[in-house]
């Protein structure tokens, strides 16, 4: 794994690997920024898989507090909020549980639209 630029962490040990790689490549990163990027990129990957293509987008509506999902023409189709106080806190508490929950939320948004 020499090129981790597209690697999306799903656990704290993987966050540490990605953080070390980013810092070694001159990027200013922290554990929190890597977690936030991982949460958002996981949601994007889940959307792409659920829709069988990159048709919808996910972006921070409010960093660490809500993710807005928009359809192919940019209309909001759903919002994902953390179960706890923040996505970072949820990731730190139980990353696999958060990833599973995010997948459920994505599936629900896709089914409703």
Please give the structural blueprint.
Layout lengths: L11 H13 L6 H21 L5 E6 L3 E5 L5 E5 L6 H26 L1
Antiparallel strand pairs: 1-2, 2-3
Helix pairs in contact: 1-2, 2-3
Task: Kindly describe this structure.
- With 113 residues, the chain is α+β, with helices and mostly antiparallel strands.
- It has one domain (12-112).
- Helices cover 53% and strands 14% of the residues.
- The protein contains three helices and three strands.
- The chain has a three-stranded antiparallel sheet, with helices on one face.
- Strand 2 (66-70) and strand 3 form a beta hairpin.
- Helix 1 (12-24) packs across helix 2 and helix 2 packs parallel to helix 3 (87-112).
- The model has no long low-confidence stretch (mean pLDDT 96).
**Helix run count:** 3
Largest sheet: 3 strands, antiparallel
Low-confidence stretches: none
**Broad shape:** globular
Distance between the termini: 38 Å
- Portion in helices: 40-55%
Strand content: 5-15%
**Number of DSSP strands?**
3
Helices and strands: which structural class?
alpha+beta
Mean pLDDT: 96
Give the radius of gyration.
14 Å
Strand order of the largest sheet: 1-2-3
- Elements, N to C (H/E): HHEEEH
Descriptors:
3-stranded antiparallel sheet, 3 strands, 113 residues, alpha+beta
The gist of it:
By secondary structure, the protein is α+β, with helices and mostly antiparallel strands.
């Amino acid at each position: 794994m020499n090129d981790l630029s597209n690697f999306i962490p799903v656990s704290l040990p993987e966050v540490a690997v990605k953080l070390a790689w980013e810092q070694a490549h001159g990027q200013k990163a922290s554990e929190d920024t890597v977690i936030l990027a991982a949460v958002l990129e996981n949601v994007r990957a889940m959307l792409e898989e659920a829709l069988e293509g990159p048709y919808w987008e996910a972006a921070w509506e409010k960093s660490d507090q809500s993710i807005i999902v928009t359809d192919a023409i940019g209309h909001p189709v759903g919002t994902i909020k953390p179960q706890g106080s923040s996505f970072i806190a949820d990731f730190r508490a139980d990353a696999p549980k958060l990833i599973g929950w995010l997948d459920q939320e994505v599936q629900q948004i896709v089914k409703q639209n």
